Prior knowledge:
A: mainly beta, B: 4-stranded antiparallel β-sheet
Amino acid sequence: GENVEQHPSTLSVQEGDSAVIKCTYSDSASNYFPWYKQELGKRPQLIIDIRSNVGEKKDQRIAVTLNKTAKHFSLHITETQPEDSAVYFCAVERGDYKLSFGAGTTVTVRA
Amino acid sequence: DVKVTQSSRYLVKRTGEKVFLECVQDMDHENMFWYRQDPGLGLRLIYFSYDVKMKEKGDIPEGYSVSREKKERFSLILESASTNQTSMYLCASSIRQGEAFFGQGTRLTVV
């Protein structure tokens, strides 16, 4: 199946600093790359997504970049706030339409 | 506005029991998924269905089966529960290249 690798597994940042999470994938037919945020005890929820015809997408303090040639994409959070503390998952919709997830990054924003 | 509902939040079953986990979505989505979530391993795909009566194995299907008799309902079956199937199980639904909506999860303990 699709191999989605996500780094780092944990990330601690000072409030106001930026956070970057990177993911790589193996299926070159993949066309859809969402990011999910899971707060403690809650279900994962979509925060941003990007499709293969776009290289970058931004939504307020969150941005995602995609490099299809290198098969990697990244999540950027600027001006981090305590409410950004959560587990973040990258995901890839494979050529066979299955949705595969990375192992997750636990982000802690220090006040 | 609950969109994906799992039948149980917590379950405790004995080794060897047959276990049914039910999931219902009200968004008329074609795709439905079953994942298990374990610390450090992220969300791993067990089974996927892209239409009624259609199912495909995910990355870790061993010990599980599924049923999709109606578009809105996707059931996960553990034929003979084992202790290594103790986990959080998450159901999700989506359209192709669209946001996946998750249920609240079922924490299954097999003793």
